[in-house]
Amino acid sequence: MTYGAELRDCLEQILGTKPPEPEPGSDPLLVTRQWLAERNLGLARVADPAAFDWPGHWIARVRTAGGDHAVVMFGSPSGPLHDPRGALTGDGVIVDGYLLARLDVHLPIDEPYGNTRSTGVVAAILIAPAAEAALVRVESTNAVAGRGLEGDRYYDGRGTFSGPGRGYQLTLVEAEVLDELKLPWEEARRNIATRGIDLNALVGRRFTVGAVECIGRRLAEPCAHLERVSRPGLLRPLVHRAGLRADILSSGTIALDDAVTATD
Known about the structure:
Shape: elongated
Radius of gyration: 21 Å
Strand order of the largest sheet: 6-11-10-14-13-12-16
């Protein structure tokens, strides 16, 4: 069993739910982290894992002569709670550690962003040919499953955050939020501006944009990069309000005024 598979097993021991098997060719650790983010969770790295003292669960990366293993630790002082390979009873040494933590302590793990069922519309479609290039509005575009919107930087893997994993094919943001902040839609750096739908509630759910089926992966949270390319001061007012990262499951055309509808 690989370290990535053991890590998923450890997370199942803690959460009661096992992360999905990564698709062939993908980074298993990255996919696991992205799956956790959908649940308002992340893995915080421990600075000194060999001396870490924590009364709850945490995960140690244990190095042995035969390779690395993931072990669930517990208690203060900590000991192995789940170590099916016996990594710590042999020659294993703790070389890394991770604490499973909520991204936002005020939000739950189950359905952290709500479960509102609503229908909205596409208010704008915006694409940029390259990273940091100005976004331009179009009347319609082709959405390609597994890639993104034709003509957009993420379709060709040229976006600032392009890479393997989930949630890089399509971004959406609520026009109501941008209007409230008096932020031009182009400066939000999202592909689709919507009206009338709670995008946060689509995390982990399937939805349609017109006839195109998509799946919400995680919130498109603001970051220092957005402030740099748009304007300073955006980080705080856009926390949990900066939109949705999604993947495209079926190809088709997306046009202005198309319906945006949750399907599960």
